[in-house]
Design a protein that fits this description.
Elements: H1 3-25, H2 31-60, H3 68-91, H4 96-125
């Protein structure tokens, strides 16, 4: 499987799962159905995330060693961004449902920006 498909495909899959999650925030489910769907989404997001991470490190390995440092820094920044987003959501005083919806829509926007940036990068190389 080509690197472009691995990176672009996993970003698209993660985007779609986060979008589905944002939509499901507004849909009432029984606790068992909600738990089952949530666990399935977690498995898929983490699986696609692992493929994406491996593909990004594989891409960085084609360049000098100094290119892996920005990837590691970006992963740390992503963790900090998620924590800050959660703090802002809690500080807003909104309902839990609205906080969750905003949180997942923000994730959709970030993943979509990453996908569009990667597509622009591919066009620059050609």
């Amino acid at each position: 499987i080509s690197q472009n498909i691995r990176i672009g495909g996993t970003l698209m899959a993660i985007f779609l799962i986060f979008l589905l999650t944002a939509i499901f925030v507004k849909v009432p489910f029984s606790p068992v159905a909600f738990f089952t769907i949530t666990m399935m989404k977690i498995v898929f997001i983490n699986s696609f995330g692992a493929i994406l991470q491996g593909s990004l490190f594989g891409l960085a390995a084609l360049f000098p060693a100094s290119y892996t440092t920005p990837i590691m820094s970006g992963q740390g920044l992503a963790g900090a961004f998620a924590a800050i987003s959660m703090i802002c959501a809690l500080a807003s005083g909104s309902s839990l449902e609205d906080n969750a919806f905003g949180y997942f829509i923000t994730a959709c926007v970030v993943v979509l920006l990453a996908l569009l940036s990667y597509m622009a990068l591919i066009r620059l190389v050609r």
